[in-house]
From TrEMBL:
InterPro entries registered for this protein in UniProt: DUF3000
Highest taxon, organism lineage: Bacteria
Protein name, UniProt field: Enoyl-CoA hydratase
Lineage per the UniProt record: Bacteria, Bacillati, Actinomycetota, Actinomycetes, Actinomycetales
Amino acid sequence: MRSVSDVNEIVAPDEFVQALLSLREAPGLPRILLEEVAPPSRLAPFTAAVAMRTIDEDDVGQPLGNGRLVVLHDPDGQVGWNSTFRLVAQLRAQIDPEMGADPLLAEALWGWTQDCLDDAGTGYHDLTGTVTRELSEAFGGLVLRGSNLFVEIRASWSPNTQFIGEHMVGWAALIRRTAGVVPSLFLEGI
């Protein structure tokens, strides 16, 4: 399997190139920083990945939320995709203890996942995923940090078209919403 960086060895199909260009043309992502990262290499013949993190940070300088969006393309399709494209996404965000105590937290976050993708105007099918709650308690010299509660959402879905910019917008919105980061009207271009 090859990544898009192996272009010298193999030419990426136009459909995959158009998908990546649609990511660049996606509308602004307020309060989110993007970085192209190395994609997984064995999931599909053509892959690309973008890391995302919130501009807002916790008391020790860590982003309140971060995540990743991976674009997979197999011109022949794969079992379970029902498409030649598959998007795989992950996010991790710190949440407040009240939210973490909610017994319906996982169901609510999965609902947010669908809401954010729908609100961004995406078209998709075969959405699957998991929601995990993690409590981290510090000891010794780290006691000042106390306990932290995190959630992780992992999801994958098949887009209805190769134009996937809206999918990145939807996933960024989910990162912000889960981390409690509210875009300011004055900072829309950040």
